[in-house]
Automatic annotation (TrEMBL):
InterPro entries: DUF1800. Pfam families: DUF1800. This is DUF1800 domain-containing protein. It comes from the Bacteria. It comes from Neolewinella marina.
Length: 563
């Protein structure tokens, strides 16, 4: 058992880090793992269903796991990959700012008249509440929204919140949409133009920043350098040519504007290089003719015709959903077939995800618990299975709801994930920096902070503006198969919160935490009375106290940091 005190007594957290750090197993992993995209043909049980949902839904509940097992793999994937409704936009939630808007009115399409400092806080609260809100349908939308946030990694300090919202909404809309179309929209997106100097890319002084990252990070990937300025997939001459082709795009003066200037970019034909742009043999020695405002689409079409583009994108999907280590066998038997599927479907992403998530390879035991949770996953896997805190009467207050989301954002900052602000254009190191990869999310200090946050949420110290919020253990317990049987309950809780079974010693320690030496029948009677008398504190307090102690210990386990 690993308790908060155990973490404090072991400052280097070596035991926890060793549990979390599975990268050392990678060499053994491929000697036994099934490396095949053949459709999964094993037994579709709750463990397999839970594994799928942990990788696609942020913090699956027991009822969602049970439904996925009943529905079967194909039906579950259809639901997960369906187009989800776009959440309603963020709103004004405080009365002390922005006298030009009414409470509950959205600001995403309004000018910045008056005081409006709350808008960035409103966006944070809205974003995190969307992630953890349990009554939304089980869907991959929010998981993919973060994938895109990291994939394009727009870093634009002091951004107008309206522009930031526009990008999030784009990621939600294209969660499993068409990569070509999304890439086109991002290329002329106001924040991306500003982030990589596209708005100052002119025919008189071409700026190569976006052209370089478009190839290196967003499409082709940078291959090994084989000559001066030659990176196998593209050359420095291609960077210069694409920069010229991208000239002429500007940003309207929308940033914190007091008028109705929209958050938009526009094309200035007078600042566009109309000459021919000759590409290197790496890109087929093609010549890009002047296409004016449509020339950026010509560029994207050329890049996506290269085999390297589909391969690069599928590697990023694989690292996000399966594991970071891609050896020659994985490349040949998983990445290349996925890339063919992507090209054959005109860069539609849904067929690729369905092929990967329904494969024998995805459900191989070596992949279960092989990823260290990022801070988003860590938070959501704590609160969402409990249906979060929206059952509390204080959550009926608009400001309380938004400030709850803001508190989550503060927690993420503590854990190394600044809201909507990746550290570099390459994204978070966990998804590209070898050999550490996911281990970047864990350090002795970060592990200790994780335990402190989970303890605060569970153990009675979670409050908003002085109002204490508590877990609804009544609703939580009644969803389980047999909550009055302590052994059955612990087994199902482990299924929900941990990616794989734990040792009998760990189970025994957790059982002792909740039972405190009592016989099984004592739990049976107490839990039965609790469920039969909702709202009665005489029955509720003993159960709540025991459950809180249990979950403090459970969330401090190294295994809880994995998915």
């Amino acid at each position: 058992m690993c308790t908060t005190q155990a973490v404090q007594d072991s400052p280097d957290c070596s035991t926890l880090l060793n549990t979390c750090d599975l990268s050392y197993q990678s060499s053994q992993r491929f000697s036994t793992a099934i490396v095949s995209l053949a459709p999964f043909s094993g037994t579709w049980d709750r463990q397999k269903a839970a594994h799928l949902l942990r990788r696609t839904v942020l913090g699956p509940r027991i009822d969602e796991i049970n439904r996925a097992q009943r529905d079967g793999l194909s039906r579950t994937l259809d639901l997960l990959l369906s187009q989800a409704p776009i959440p309603s936009p963020p709103v004004k939630y405080r009365t002390d700012d922005d006298e030009y808007l009414q409470m509950g009115e959205t600001w995403v399409d309004k000018s910045c008249l008056g005081k409006n400092q709350y808008r960035s806080h409103s966006l944070k609260g809205w974003y995190y509440n969307n992630m953890v809100q349990a009554d939304r349908p089980s869907n991959i939308q929010e998981r993919m929204s973060f994938f895109w946030l990291n994939y394009f990694s727009i870093s634009a300090p002091n951004s107008d919140p309206r522009a930031m919202y526009k990008d999030i909404r784009l990621y939600q809309e294209f969660a499993v949409g068409n990569f070509r179309t999304l890439l086109q929209k991002i290329t002329v997106d106001p924040r991306m133009l500003r982030c990589l100097n596209g708005d100052v890319n002119s025919k008189e002084n071409p700026n190569e920043n976006y052209a370089r990252e478009l190839m290196e990070l967003f499409t082709l990937g940078k291959g090994p350098q084989v000559g001066p300025g030659d990176y196998t997939t593209y050359t420095e001459d291609d960077v210069a040519a694409l920069a010229r082709a991208l000239t002429g795009w500007k940003i309207k003066p929308y940033r914190f504007a007091k008028d109705n200037t929209p958050v938009e970019s526009y094309f200035d034909s007078s600042d566009h290089d109309t000459g021919d742009k000759k590409l290197s043999p790496r890109l087929g020695s093609q010549v890009i003719k002047n296409a004016g405002a449509e020339e950026y689409k010509v560029i994207i079409d050329i890049l996506l015709k290269q085999d390297a583009a589909a391969l690069h994108f599928c590697r990023e999907l694989y690292r996000y959903f399966v594991f970071h280590d891609i050896n020659p066998t994985i490349e040949a038997q998983v990445i290349e077939p996925l890339a063919r599927t992507l090209r054959d479907n005109n860069y539609e992403i849904k067929p690729v995800l369905k092929q990967l998530l329904s494969s024998e390879h995805f459900y191989e035991a070596a992949h279960t618990g092989a990823i260290i949770k990022n801070p988003h996953d860590f938070l959501c896997s704590i609160v969402r299975p409990f249906r979060e805190f929206w059952h509390d009467k204080p959550m009926q207050d608009l400001r309380m709801r938004y400030e709850l989301g803001g508190k989550y954002a503060d927690y993420m900052y503590d854990l190394g994930m600044e809201f909507l602000d990746p550290p570099t254009i390459s994204g978070w190191k966990a998804y590209y920096d070898s050999p550490q990869f996911y281990r970047h999310w864990i350090s002795p200090a970060l592990m200790q902070r994780r335990v402190q946050i989970s303890t605060a949420i569970i153990d009675g110290d979670f409050h908003i503006n002085g109002t204490r919020l508590s877990i609804d253990y009544y609703s939580f317990l009644k969803d389980f198969t047999n909550p009055t049987d302590i052994n059955s309950l612990i087994d199902e809780i482990v299924l929900v919160f941990l990616p794989r079974p734990i040792s009998t010693q760990q189970i025994a320690a957790l059982r002792e935490t909740i039972m405190g030496g009592l016989e099984d029948k004592e739990w049976t009677m107490s839990c039965r009375d609790f469920l039969a008398n909702p709202g009665n504190d005489n029955y509720a307090k003993p159960i709540q106290s025991r459950m809180a102690r249990f979950f403090v210990d459970l969330f401090a386990l190294g295994e809880f940091q994995l998915q």
